[in-house]
Amino acid sequence: MSDSTRGTTLADLERRVAERRAGPAYGDDALIVCDRLVRIFTADGVEVQALQGLDLLVREGELTALVGASGSGKSTLMNILAGLDVPTAGAARVAGRDLLTMDAGARLRYRRDVVGFVRQQTARNLLPYLTAAQNVALPMQLRGGTKRARKAERVRELLAMLDVAECRDRLPHRMSGGQQQRVAIAVALANAPSVLLADEPTGELDSATGEQVFAAFRRANEELGTTIVIVTHDRAVAGEVRRAVAVRDGRTSSEVLRRTEVDAEGRESMVAREYATLDRAGRLQLPAEYTEALGMEHRVLLELEPDHIAVRPDDDGS
Ligand SMILES: Nc1ncnc2c1ncn2[C@@H]1O[C@H](COP(=O)(O)OP(=O)(O)OP(=O)(O)O)[C@@H](O)[C@H]1O
Q: What are the SpoVT-AbrB domain coordinates in residue numbering (predicted)?
């Protein structure tokens, strides 16, 4: 028994549990909450755990990139957040909607009103026989309740903001890949969703065009305040955002936060800091290069210092 637990009475423990229950719930102030999310697929009798207890909080107004190798579970997470797939266990909430318990009607309304979705395949985001303006107007028509003049105005505003006003009357096949993706962002924003999700939106584009599309996401985030989550396997793309969360083996493992600092001469520079994710159970994933450098395997020694926790190799030798 450690010094801190020695002398703890049952009454103390009961009080602590009561205090914890009375406190705010996990992710109380977040727009997107994933709490120990699990998704298991079964194919030909073989189980694949695509998400293995993933925790993620996204606050309103954030622009977040989810980065990870192929097969790490990014698309699975995206499909769940988009309301296209249902998790096996855990909890997922977006803008107050519980993604596990929604019935078919609520799921349809969720996909129409709460989230906007941009896919990697440029050709799948737009209807080929409608112009850019008609594509953007369509979600408003399907929802109903928007006056014709207001619809036309919103189409104009969105296309101008995303720098594709000149594509207004063009069919998708007469637009470049980058223009198609920017029109697709306008379509996804048409019904003013709480969250805009994008799965590898620059995957089919060259890097210069990809940057333009990324700039369009940033503009939507800054000008409309829309919360945006973008999945990418491209680390360079992830460098364009203030928050990049790494997904590894179906869990969030680390994240990089960037902020602008101004020095004494007034010069601005971007400062990046990398953090490890501490999950709800207190688990931490140590980077392989760190553990390998110190020959850490199987078990490590932990020591609580006044301002940090030290992790040391096992020196027992047995
Ligand atoms: N419908 C499915 N049936 C069976 N296994 C699946 C299914 N969807 C995904 N998986 C598996 O789940 C794991 C995670 O896949 P996911 O597509 O989420 O990864 P990803 O990080 O998005 O990869 P990529 O960048 O290649 O799309 C993989 O092992 C994949 O094979």
A: 273-316
Query: Ligand 1 test: best mutation among 38, 66, 72, 80, most atoms within 8 Å of CB?
Result: 72
Nearest CA to ligand 1 atom 17: 75
* pTM, full prediction: 0.85
Residues pairing with 245 in the sheet: 66, 255
At 208-236, the pLDDT tens digits run 888 888 889 999 999 999 999 999 887 77
> The dihedral of CA 186, 162, 151, 136: what is its sign?
negative
Measured in degrees and rounded to the nearest 5, phi and psi for residue 164 equal -130, 30
* 3-state secondary structure (DSSP) of residue 15: helix
Among 229, 223, 182, 177, residue whose Cα is nearest residue 203: 177
Q: What is the ipTM of this complex?
A: 0.94
Residue 247 CA: nearest ligand 1 atom is 21
What does the buried/exposed string (b/e) look like for 170-179 if buried means 16 or more CB atoms within 10 Å of the residue's CB? Answer: bbbeebebbb
